[in-house]
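queue> holo job accepted (FE2/S2 (inorganic) cluster)
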Amino acid sequence: MTTTVFTETVYERARVILARYPEGRERSALLPLLHLVQSEEGYVSPAGVAFCAEVLGINKAQVGAVATFYTMYKRRPTGDWLVSVCTNTMCNVLGGQEVYDTLSETLGVGHDETTADGKITLEHAECLAACDYGPVLTVNYDFFDNVTPDSAVEVVEALKAGNPPTPSRAPRLCTLKEMAVQLAGFSDPRERAVGEGVAGAPTLRGVTLAQEHGISVPGFNLDTPIPRKDAGGSPVAPPKTSAPASDRKPAGDNADAQTKNLKDAK
Ligand code: FES
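queue> job finished
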């Protein structure tokens, strides 16, 4: 299988990725390499598998074994907008299945299927680790919290119309290919392409209850920032949070203050 669909720029990025790993342990770079090829074609094609195998000096079966294990690696062409609806336990009891069913009917596609115009791929997802905001859906891994069937339809209608809506806890949406570049470990220099929010009130509810009941854990201080590092291991300033944790607004209200581009791995 030819690998000529990948340009010298992609090979150069592959070399940058490999250089992050100790000599002799380069095969550990397979996960970001799979994101890299997905950033080019929108999925891990047979050519993408061959590319990874060639770069790492392993066989295609080894690459395929990894690529088929993780659901983030798509094995067939995927839309610009990957809409993932959590139908796991917590979201489900809050209406997640109704959200999924409504979107499936609206878009005319089922799980892991793409609309005829190639724009939107729908999937149901296991727990997306945002149960405190359930039911949730993600678009290219950015969250829309507390969705309803109606609000979820508004999201996909906006995507179809070419007006990507703003996620609940991120500055803006990126296309799936753009997101794959970031997941491969490369910065997206565009304004507001990368951002994060602080923990919102639902996430902090347990802590709030503990404070209200005078329960504490020795050595734990909510207002002490956790040390953070960038992709190169250098310290990164913590998000700006002027208010004490107990006074913080939901994350979506603070997202603008949290924008921080990753340091270019080059
Ligand atoms: S069950 Fe939906 S995010 Fe956890």
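queue> The two ends are 29 Å apart (CA to CA).
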